[in-house]
Task: structure prediction
Amino acid sequence: MENTDYTFENKKQELLTKGDSDLKSAIMNLMQVQSSMIVHSTQDCISEVLENFRAFQKEITNIDKASSDIKEISYKTRMLSLNAAIEAARAGAAGKGFGVVAEEVGSLSGQTTKCTDEVNKINKNMLKNADTNKGTLDKLERYLLRFEGSNDKVMTDIIGISKIEENGFIITTLAKRLENHADFMRNLLKERGAVKTLANHHTCAFGKWYDQNREKYRHIPEYEAIYETHKAFHDVAVEYNKTGDMNSLVKFLELSHEILHEFVSLTEAFRNMALNDDSYFRRVGL
Result:
């Protein structure tokens, strides 16, 4: 005759082992999305910097043009100054005062020419440095694009073989909700702006589970603690979907990190309760 207690303990351990494995899979899934968000935000920053570089180069080119025009005016002014000095010399004593003015104008013209030469030299160095930096950023942007594509492909394969199958045990249920959370983020990152209506903190997979079990688990501090973070996460998701604003994306990522931390704490709380209350295992048919 089979030892019922022994069988129960075996099944209990199997559920705990699967729950732990599922949670690790869900965490890996979420962290992959978070890394994709970091890459995406970095790409956005690089694109913005590159755009500023192009504007910067255009402005320097405009300065070059202005310097060239000033140099031309300076040259013509110097010619006029020389002609005025010659005429002043011909006029003798009567043209002496005018000769002093002509000399000062000539001196000013020389200083202007020297100044524009220095500006041109600085501009050339700035353009050279800008081109170097732009080249480095171009390389980084191309690398990030390749990394993102490769990373997505690898993780798609991994997620496919580690998809969580629910069995009614609380830890696996929470792991599945965390997996749903990662899927929500992944879809938003790929389809931002095209999604007209996003799930909120009540209608997403975790929100539905949370509301359904509110009366049953509200006495658990970790259960109550995650509510506000989860609500804030969905509020920022709506904002990011509408605007694509970098600050929203960063806040979106920060709140996802907070949710992960609180999910782990909540899972640990349920694990401890399950170890002290066999009803958590009997609910799945043990």
